[in-house]
Structures are given as structure tokens and as C-alpha cells.
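=== RUN LOG ===
request id: a7f3
mode: sequence -> structure
chains: 1
length: 235
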Amino acid sequence: MPIESFCFIAIAVAVGALIQGTTGMGFALVVAPMMGLLEPALLPISLLILMLPLNVIIAWQEREAIDLRGSSWITLGRFFGTFGGVWILFWLSLPQLKLLIGLSTIAACLVTWLAPTFVPGRRAFVSTGLITGITETATGIGGPPLALVYQHSPVATLRGSVALCFLIGEVISLVVLAAQGHLYVEQLSPLLWLLLPLALGMLASRWARNILDERRLRRFVLLFAFTSGLFLLLQ
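=== RESULT ===
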């Protein structure tokens, strides 16, 4: 990987970890478009692996606020959605994958921004898991559907429940992707160097929770992600 590409991706990883540690979402929305622009071969494996320690930490920090019932239904849908994501990866080339990432990012931003207030039930949880399984396995982006279903819950519940769903889903996706031959050694070597910016972002998020307006920060995440997705499409 060229050093310039690595530096931009490392900055995106640190910023994404800061935002997700603060609000419960945003890591993939920040990092996936950057990887798609600079090193699309890293997607989705590298992104999924980077999110494992991130979500372990967040889920542990918010363990008392996690919605176990909703998370269970989401995981059920997530399992079946994973196979749809693998099917997409089998048929798409890298340019087509970049197009899918751009479209998924923009659609996710618009849905998250415009969705009305609602109280999620079993169908909403299962369908959220299904959509997340497809999009996260294929592109690494799965946060917006989860953030959408929990957007009117307490912040601690959103952070903890989304992190737990991510964690279980990422393990499922990685196992299925590895079994289908989509896991390569070349995707793993840059991850060791990206763990440092990931850790720095997580440490900064503990400080940022006390001083940042989470609503404004979430709006910034959506605006940034929308712009990145649009740039991918134009490219």
C-alpha cells in the first residue's frame, strides 16, 4: 500500500473510532468510502476485522444498557442476510463494488436522516438484521440500519446494542467469507499498523463524550459519509 494511501486511511480509522465510540455509529461510514477510493481490495475483510476490537470495547462499556431481546432478533436476520452479501461479492467486480458502496452510503444517510419516530418491534428488528447482513458483508457498511432502529432509544442503549449486533454479525460474516474463499493474507498485513490509530480514536472518544453535542456530531457523520459516497459515484 502506498504511504499516502495508508496515511489517509489511518486518519479515517482514527476519526471513525472517535465518532463511533462517541455516538455508537459512524466508523464504517467514514472508513469504507476512504478504503473504496484508495484501496478497494481491503474491503470488506479489513474493515470487518478492524471493527471487532472497537465493538468489543463499546459493548463492554455499555453492557448494562444493551437491549438483548432486540439484539437477538437482529442477529437472526443478520445470519440470513450474510449469505446475500456473499452472493453480491461473488458477482461484482471492484469497480462495481465501489459503485455499490457509494450508493449504499448515500441511501443509508438519507434513510437515517429522514426516518420518522417509531417504536421498533420484532419485524423491524429482523428486517434490520437482514439488511445489515447483506450490506455489511458486501461492503463493510451496516451501521445505518442499526442506528435507525435504535435512534430513539437512550444513547447508552444505542451504543451498546449496536456494538453487540455488530460484533456477532462481523464474526458471522468473517467466517462465511473465509469459507467462501474471500479472505486473503494481503488484506491482513495493513491491519497491524491501523490498530494504533484505532486505539487513539477510541481513547479520544472517552474524552469527546463529555464535551461534544452528539446530535451535531451525528449530522457531521452523515454529511461526511454522503459526500464520500457521492465522490465514489462520480469517480
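=== NOTES ===
The mean pLDDT is 83.
The radius of gyration is 16 Å.
=== END ===
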